[in-house]
Every structure is written in structure tokens, then in C-alpha cells.
């Protein structure tokens, strides 16, 4: 993402991942993916449906200590478990592409139990030095729990950036069981200290 693109290589990676998502239609998650969701469900994972857009509430908030980090959450408001994508889809204004997931994994279904919440953290500027003079600023960020959902847009002002959210090769964690875990994963992935199992 030099100027116009959200990332230099994320657009291609995202296109491939979205194609995989379309082909699998968020097929049943593996036991590991289902277990990562936290609460078990009485329904078999194979029987779970994808969460409808009206079944979930997506939120984005600014980080308290870093203007380039956004805290995300998705809550299942329905009375039964359903599937979201294991990676939040985060796009910036009218720029091409989406935040690249860390670790880089194929899109797949993740079980979200009834009334349960999952969390992610997004680093909008992954290379502050390179971005210093060239990073564009956008006036809204859109977050979706499933790639083909329209998603919810959040104005830059509400994200603590009244002059626009800077964006330069953004990266996002997968959905995690807690906000603190999401932040920890983001820190570990972006500082090269290893990864946590998800």
C-alpha cells in the first residue's frame, strides 16, 4: 500500500482469501477453530449457519495508548451459536484491499456462541518510518465479521482521529477470546517475538 493501496501485497492476499471464503462458504471449522471460540455449543459445528449481518454487533474503538491501533469486537446477539470469519475484514475509506491477517491464515469459520463476544486488534500503520511522509488519512474505517457482510463504518472522529485515520500496510489479529489477548497477539506478531495459537 504505497499511497493508493491499503497494502502493497495485501490486496492479492485478501483477494485469494476471499475467494477461498466464497468457495468454502464458511464451512464447518476444525476442532481447534471451534475450541478457540470459547464457549462450547450443543449444536454440531457442521450444523452451524453463518451469522447473519443482523445477528451480530461489530464495534471499533481507539486504543488508549497508540493512535494507530484500533480495538475491535463482534458480539453474537442471537440466541444460538453461528459462524463468523476467523479474520475481521477491515477496510479504510475508499482505499483498495483490507488489513492483512497476522498470522497469515486462510479465511475459515469461527464459532461464536450465543451472546458471546470475540475481540481483535488492528494496527493501521505497520511501518511508522515509511509512513511518516506518505501515509494517506481516511475519514472512516469499515469492519465486517463476515467478508460478504456490508459491515459497519466508523467515522475517524469517533476513532480518536479528527483529521483522519492514517493507514499504511495495516495488519489485524484474528478474533481472540479477550481484548487483552488480541492486544498481546498484535504485539507479538508485529515485533517478531512469535505467535500464539488461535
What is the element layout, followed by pairings?
Layout: H1 10-24, H2 31-36, E1 56-62, E2 69-76, E3 82-85, E4 89-92, E5 100-102, E6 109-112, E7 117-123, H3 128-131, E8 137-138, E9 140-144, E10 152-155, E11 165-166, E12 171-173, H4 179-190
Parallel strand pairs: 5-12
Antiparallel strand pairs: 1-2, 2-7, 3-6, 4-9, 7-12, 8-11, 9-10
Q: Can you describe this structure in just a few lines?
A:
The protein is α+β, with helices and mostly antiparallel strands and 198 residues long. The protein has 4 helices and 12 strands, in the order H-H-E-E-E-E-E-E-E-H-E-E-E-E-E-H.
Notes on the protein architecture:
Helices cover 19% and strands 27% of the residues. By secondary structure, it is of the alpha+beta class. It is globular, with a radius of gyration of 16 Å.
Tags for this entry?
alpha+beta, five-stranded mixed β-sheet, 4 helices, 27% strand, disordered N terminus, disordered C terminus
Most strands sheet: 5 strands, mixed
Structural class category: alpha+beta
The overall strand count is 12
Q: List the helices and strands in order.
A: HHEEEEEEEHEEEEEH
Describe the global form. Answer: globular
Cα radius of gyration in angstroms: 16 Å
Query: How would you write the strand order of the largest sheet?
Result: 1-2-7-12-5
Report how far apart the termini are: 27 Å
The low-confidence parts are: 1-43, 193-198
Report the β-strand fraction as a percent range: 25-35%
Tell me, rounded to a whole number, the average pLDDT.
79
Please work out how many helical segments DSSP would assign: 4
The helicity comes to 10-25%
Amino acid at each position: 500500500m504505497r499511497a493508493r493501496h491499503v497494502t502493497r501485497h495485501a490486496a492479492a492476499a485478501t483477494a485469494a482469501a476471499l475467494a477461498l471464503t466464497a468457495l468454502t462458504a464458511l464451512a464447518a471449522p476444525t476442532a481447534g477453530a471451534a475450541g478457540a471460540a470459547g464457549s462450547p455449543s450443543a449444536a454440531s459445528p457442521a450444523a452451524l449457519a453463518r451469522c447473519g449481518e443482523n445477528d451480530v454487533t461489530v464495534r471499533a474503538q481507539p486504543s488508549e495508548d497508540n493512535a494507530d491501533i484500533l480495538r475491535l469486537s463482534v458480539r453474537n446477539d442471537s440466541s444460538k451459536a453461528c459462524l463468523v470469519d476467523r479474520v475481521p475484514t477491515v477496510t479504510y475509506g475508499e482505499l483498495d484491499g483490507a488489513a492483512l491477517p497476522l498470522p497469515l491464515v486462510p479465511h475459515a469459520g469461527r464459532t461464536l456462541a450465543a451472546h458471546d463476544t470475540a475481540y481483535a486488534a488492528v494496527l493501521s500503520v505497520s511501518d511508522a518510518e515509511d509512513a511518516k511522509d506518505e501515509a494517506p488519512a481516511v475519514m472512516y474505517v469499515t469492519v465486517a465479521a463476515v467478508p460478504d457482510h456490508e459491515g459497519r463504518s466508523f467515522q475517524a472522529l469517533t476513532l480518536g482521529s479528527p483529521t483522519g485515520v492514517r493507514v499504511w500496510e495495516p495488519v489485524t489479529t484474528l478474533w481472540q477470546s479477550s481484548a487483552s489477548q488480541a492486544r498481546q497477539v498484535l504485539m507479538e506478531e508485529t515485533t517478531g517475538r512469535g505467535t500464539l495459537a488461535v
